[in-house]
Amino acid sequence: xxxxCEINSLLKLKPAQGxxxxxxxxxxxxxxxxGYRIFPLDVPLCLVDENWLAHADIVIEKLTWERQIxxxxxxxxxxxxxxxxxx
Length: 87
Hints:
By secondary structure, the protein is mainly β. The protein contains no helices and seven strands. It is 0% helix and 57% strand.
């Protein structure tokens, strides 16, 4: 029996999932995504909105799995001068 999981190299969030209303370097956020997800920790990843536009680099500092939910604690590391398509 295996554990179903998804490997992600960026963090895509909808507003309902906790996409930050205001992006500020150094700000910390906590969000949850359904299912078990694997993310690189302590390295910059793109923060992508629901339209697949990348707006910032984030660093995931905490990742926990519980009851088919992945909880993610991250901080905003860098904000891009202009968003770009990530898909």
